[in-house]
Every structure is written in C-alpha cells, then in structure tokens.
Specification:
With 306 residues, the chain is of the alpha/beta class. It is built from ten helices and 13 strands. Helix 2 packs parallel to helix 4 and helix 6 runs parallel beside helix 8. The structure holds nicotinamide-adenine-dinucleotide (NAD).
C-alpha cells in the first residue's frame, strides 16, 4: 500500500513508519520538523517537509501521489500551550486536521487512522479503567480538538466511503520520546537522571496515568490498518494506573536509587487519575498490550543511555 504518515518524524510516528516499512508498504512522511527529527525518519521512507496548515502544499502532495491509507499524527501536542493559545491549537489540531481528512476523502483514500487521546478525554472520573462509552470531558483545548476530530471522523465514516478509526492513547512512552517537552514524564526524568540532574515531581506525585509502551501503540495502529471490519473509536491503554511517584521509583532503581524524591508545586487544574479500558480494541482489533511497564521502562532507559 501507499501510506502517508503525518508527524512521521516524531516519537510515535517514526516507530510506526519503521513498522509499516517492515511490512513492505511504501511510506511517505509529511512533517514540519517542529519537534520531529530527520534522524528519526526511516531512510526507506519518502520524506516531504511541510506543515499540515499549508493547504496548497498538502493539496500538491495529494495530487502528486495516490495514498491508500493515511495515519494522522502531526499535531500541536502541548496541553499547556493549548490553554495559552487555543487559536493556534485549533488552527493545527482542528482546521488543518479537518482539511487533511476532507482531502483524503476527496482523493479516494480508503482509510484514515487518527492519533487521538484517551489520557485527557474523560476528565477525572470514578469509572476507571474508563471505556469509550463514558462521557467525554476534555478540560483543555488540546483535548477538545482531539474530540472534535473524533467526531468529524464519525461524520465522514457515516457520510462517505472513507473508513475512519480514532485511537485514543494513554500516556505513551518509549525510545525517541522528546525529553524537552512538558509532557512525557518518563523521557523528562530519564534525561535528567542520565545528565546527573535531580528530577522534580509536580505536586504530591500521586497523580496516576495509564502508561503504554510505544511498541504496543504501533501494533494498535497496524491492527487498525489491517482490520477489514472494525471502525470507530478505540482506547489504547493497559487499564493499569501508575503514579508519578511510582514511575520515579522504578526509574531510580536503574540508578541504584541515587536520586531523592523531590516535589515541586502542583500544576493547577492537572487531571488526577486516568486509566483506559481497552476491551473494545481487544475484541474488534484483536489488540492488547504486551510490554510490561518494567520492561518498557528498561528498554527506554537503554535507548536514552545510548
Ligand atoms: P511528537 O511531537 O514526537 O510528534 C508529532 C510530530 O508532528 C512531530 O514530528 C512534529 O514535528 C510534527 N508536527 C507538529 N506540528 C506539525 C504541523 N503543523 N505540520 C506538520 N507536522 C507537524 O509527538 P508524539 O508523542 O509522537 O505524538 C504523535 C501523536 O500522538 C500526536 O497527534 C499526539 O497528540 C498523539 N498522542 C500522543 C500521546 C503521547 O503520550 N505521546 C498520547 C495521546 C495522543
């Protein structure tokens, strides 16, 4: 298949590109390199540098090439930035995404698979692990934009021949994650610890997340591509909750517990708890996570060490 991966120079996207190439697909990466890196891009992929907000460039891309499937990962991923500048966030994460979906639909793409979020989709809720049927309650413009695109994809699924799948990830971690962003506590802590710098935990560290290894997320994307019948929204998580304190402690083990647990003020409005019920993905995509947190952290540690 000819496959377009937007954001294919980034953390998750580049691993996905590797897996697609391994399966014999022709892969095109479209990325503006705002956080992605050319060194992440598989040399067998065709790289087109560009921004998803640039309509004419995107239009030319869809005129020059024919794609069977599109994975859409390019996004403004910073939740705090989305609250500071909701218009910028919406421009990229809503309008440009909608334009891409519309173009894919018009140009005869068969399937689009969207990287959505489960982590900030359902808000703080006592129903955990949280299934897709739970009310969405995103508290940030970033989450609102992801939900908006999930809903547009439902529209295209119903109204056009385009098959659409939204994958709502938990907190993805693994090799190649950018340690300089404000998200990605595993990458941030590891980067500091390897630089012999003391990491700090925001608030009491009891905030919990559903940490999912990038390799498992890639397998979910491949399952979404290969399914004949499944469509719609799928949570992609482990169903387990891990606190930031626990992440710190597991990582500290790799350093013979040489770091102290130091806390900084909490981030106002930060979600307290999150874990995802992925039973639907298990039933319909025959997908389930395979990498334990300990193994995933070890693989990530080894990569960051290099
Ligand atoms: P990332 O920053 O590593 O990847 C995003 C990629 O998109 C980067 O290569 C960046 O250069 C590119 N990009 C950003 N804006 C662009 C634009 N306007 N035009 C073209 N390219 C652009 O982040 P990631 O963690 O790999 O995230 C990939 C996707 O998965 C995003 O859509 C993100 O919202 C989603 N997601 C990630 C997580 C997570 O925990 N990492 C959780 C839920 C959802």
């Amino acid at each position: 298949m000819n496959i377009l991966v937007t954001g294919g120079a980034g953390f998750i996207g580049s691993h996905l590109v590797d897996a697609l190439i391994e399966r014999g697909h022709s892969v095109f990466v479209y990325d503006n390199l705002s956080s992605g890196k050319t060194t992440n891009i598989n040399p067998q992929a065709t790289f087109i540098e560009g921004d998803i907000t640039h309509e004419e460039v995107l239009h030319k891309l869809f005129t020059d090439y024919t794609f069977d499937a599109v994975f859409h990962l390019a996004a403004q991923i910073n939740v705090r930035k989305s609250t500071e500048d909701p218009l910028f966030d919406a421009h990229t994460n809503i309008l440009a995404s909608l334009n891409l979906i519309n173009m894919a639909s018009k140009k005869g793409v068969q399937k689009i698979i969207f990287s959505s979020t489960g982590g900030v989709m359902y808000g703080d809720t006592s129903i955990r692990p949280t299934p897709e049927t739970h009310n969405e309650n995103p508290l940030s413009p970033y989450g609102i934009a992801k939900l908006t695109i999930d809903k547009y994809l439902a529209f295209y699924r119903e109204a056009t021949p385009l098959k659409t799948i939204s994958l709502r990830y938990g907190n993805v971690y693994g090799p190649r994650q950018n340690p300089h962003g404000e998200a990605g506590v595993v990458a941030i802590f590891l980067n500091k610890m390897l630089g012999e710098e003391q990491p700090t935990i925001n608030g009491d560290g009891m905030q919990s997340r559903d940490y999912i290894f990038v390799g498992d997320v890639v397998r979910a994307n491949i399952a979404a591509l290969e399914t004949e019948s499944a469509s719609g929204i799928y949570n992609i998580g482990t169903g387990k909750e891990t606190t930031v304190n626990e992440i710190f402690s597991l990582l500290n083990d790799f350093f013979d517990n040489s770091f102290q647990e130091i806390h900084a003020p909490s981030i106002p409005g930060e979600q307290k708890m999150s874990s995802l019920d992925s039973a639907r993905a298990q039933d319909e995509l025959t997908w389930q996570p395979t990498v334990s947190l300990r193994d995933g952290l070890k693989q990530t540690f080894e990569w960051f060490k290099k």
